[in-house]
């Protein structure tokens, strides 16, 4: 069934509503709405599914979804612990959005750079648990493998030094190669 067609979508929603009404009590229905709308896992899973489709991915970016997610990645170290699952889910969503090898790849890269994904990933690498560090490092590496992403990281001395300092703390065999690329890119850029 194609849910993109409004008549099909409306019929499915009517049937779903009828099923919920028939199969549940009023108290259950009240709780259902609360849990569906307040569940960060449900929302991030839905957004991750959307991000896996190329047309929906660019729609999410044009709707500036990363801007709305950034506050969850800026949380302080003492708050991060209880919200680690939310942070991890959002990082997974950003990783799903970071597909630079497709037709909208450079547009996606520029939007992610504009939404400060690099400093947010660095923050997550410094303060997150092992899984958060791994996903944030993956996103950062994908950005650094793009010429514009590498130039972004080398554009300001403070940004460059922060990236170098954070990457040096990681135990990843690819880090020395990435640091070498950063230094080469920095030495090739003309002074401003």
From TrEMBL:
Q: A Pfam family matched by this chain, by name?
A: Rcd1
Example of a GO biological process term: mRNA catabolic process
**Superkingdom classification of source:** Eukaryota
Gene Ontology CC terms, in alphabetical order: CCR4-NOT complex
**InterPro entries (alphabetical):** ARM-like, ARM-type_fold, CNOT9
Q: Which residues form a coiled coil?
A: none
Which Gene3D superfamilies did the record assign? Leucine-rich Repeat Variant
**Family (UniProt):** Belongs to the CNOT9 family.
Q: What is this protein called?
A: Cell differentiation protein rcd1
* Species in which this protein is naturally found: Solanum commersonii (Commerson's wild potato)
